[in-house]
Amino acid sequence: MEVASPYSQDEAAVLCRFGEICEEIHTCRFVCELPKHDHSITVVNQPDGTSRTQYPQYDKDDFLAFLTHFRKLVANREKTNIFAVLKIIGKHADDIERASLREIKRMLVSEAENPPMQIAIGTLGNETTYTPLQVQNIIFNGQVFHSDSELQGDLSKLLDFEPFTKAVFLRYATIVINNASRISWVLKSRGHISSGPGRCD
């Protein structure tokens, strides 16, 4: 039985593509390999008085491939940006659902801009603090998809502390992906989007 959709043709196309992206993220190699890693970062003191930092080693090519998918959930100009998707769903939701959607948005904004886990780089009293949103912007626009000259100084700092930078970024990315996947699941369970290749054609 086909479920009547409250969404316009354009809205349905965006939601369908959003569902595809969620599936692409979960099947990309970086995400599939992530549970196999020990994500702890430890500093081990050596007998000679030096110390050695141990941290997870992620495949660079897999990470970059993952970013091409993840960017579609968070880039401001992407129609499948999770906040744009929440807005589409909210237009057709009841009051209870709208309250839930507002809470998801509030939590995502908080995690992006003022999370419990941030990275501070610099000398004591002269640190530069980076939120996950800032780290994301620097990675996307200073390194991976663009080479913004104004971000190169910040990029250099983040690369010097890459294990910690990725830890902050991946924590945020995981929260975004988990919420996006739950939204996609609800849309599928209600028959508003379907699974399988070519469904958005």
Number of strands: 4
Strand order of the largest sheet: 1-2
Beta content:
5-15%
Q: Estimate percent helicity.
A: 55-70%
Low-pLDDT runs: none
Look at the helices and sheets and give the structural class: mainly alpha
- Major sheet details: 2 strands, antiparallel
CA-CA gap between termini:
21 Å
Mean pLDDT: 87
Radius of gyration: 19 Å
Number of helical elements: 8
SSE series: HHEEHHHEEHHH
Principal-axes geometry comes out as elongated
How would you sum up this structure, described in words?
With 201 residues, the chain is mainly alpha-helical. Helix content is 59%, strand content 7%. The protein has 8 helices and 4 strands. It is elongated.
Key features of this structure:
201 residues, mainly alpha, two-stranded antiparallel ribbon, two-stranded antiparallel sheet, 7% strand, elongated
Topology:
Layout lengths: L8 H19 L1 H5 L8 E4 L5 E4 L5 H15 L7 H10 L3 H19 L5 E3 L6 E3 L1 H13 L7 H9 L1 H28 L12
Antiparallel strand pairs: 1-2, 3-4
Helix pairs in contact: 1-3, 1-8, 4-5, 5-8, 6-7, 6-8
